[in-house]
Amino acid sequence: MSDKPRRVAVIGAGSWGTALAGLxxxxxxxxxxxxxxxxxxxxxxxxxxxxTYLPGRKLPRSLxxxxxxxxxxxxxxxxxxxxxxxFVSSVMADAAPHIAEHAQIISASKGIEISTxxxxxxxxxxVLSPAQxxxxxxxxxxxxxxxxxxxxxxxxxxxxxxxxxxxxxxELFQTDYFRVYTxxxxxxxxxxxxLKNVIALAAGVAAGLGLAHNTRAALLTRGLAExxxxxxxxxxxxxxxxxxxxxxxxxxxxxxxxxxxxxxxFRLGQGEPLESILADMTAVAEGVKTVQAVxxxxxxxxxxxxxxxxVYGMLVIGTEPQQALRTLMRRDPKPEEWS
Length: 339
What we know:
The chain is α/β, with parallel strands linked by helices. The chain folds into two domains: 7-184, NAD(P)-binding Rossmann-like Domain (Rossmann fold, 3-Layer(aba) Sandwich); 187-329, N-(1-d-carboxylethyl)-l-norvaline Dehydrogenase, domain 2 (Orthogonal Bundle), CATH 1.10.1040.10. It contains 15 helices and ten strands. The chain has helices at 15-26, 38-47, 69-73, 88-95, 120-127, 145-149, 163-173, 186-208, 213-233, 244-255, 260-269, 274-279, 286-301, 306-317, 321-329; strands at 7-11, 30-34, 64-66, 78-81, 104-107, 112-113, 118-119, 137-140, 154-159, 178-183. It has an eight-stranded mixed β-sheet with strand order 3-2-1-4-5-8-9-10, with helices on both faces. Helix 4 links the parallel strand 4 (78-81) and strand 5 (104-107). Helix 8 crosses helix 14 (306-317).
């Protein structure tokens, strides 16, 4: 863990951003959390709780929140970007003029920008300066926000092309209950965090349909194969998908009841329309947006992703879950291949 308290700005006060801000504040860092909604900033500042996105979890009294983006990032040595993936570009473009050139940028958003098919590191490269991106890192892995807030033992990974930047981020986040590993495969770690949400939607549908453990095991295994194939086509390493950002996050998101993506899938499998499910949710289920980008990336790179294709069908075209299952099961027999 970091010996020296640091000034940290966390951009995005959803459940995950709030949990990370709380973790860092507990470790004695000077943390400011930017909130889109002024009432959320007031909850955190005056009641030490994010009642909207992380209810029931007390936050350190030292944690400060603000709805003023410039104020939140001013003087920060580290800026952690945790906005929903489709808003990272606009939020960080607004923040960029107020971020110090020497600040380290860490991305903790999991998704792909639909309009451009860019990963979050690519999005940030377009809105931040080369100096600001010089020590970029991405944080990912199996970690429900509520469990991190409860200090449940958790292991994640931080990836950077710069070994020193990875170690610095590792030291910043490492605690007695939050173990951080390093990796140099930024592409793989970014993709793992985004792609697993699409497979989690499928796993939720299977659970909603009342299907047994055999089906869920098949979905996780073949889902991982799809993630790995696309990752390799985009320049990632296969080994990354066997680690925390791949298999680890996939298992958590596909099986854990706290998973927003699994929940959306579960309710779809039980017959609820997508529109009513989303209208009933406060937090963002990233896979609902990401599935369009994943389908487009698979087509662009010539990668077969049948599970992702059927998830796209259910969410965008309106394919019935039972029909999606039949389509997957009746595909032509073939060898088991991972790449």
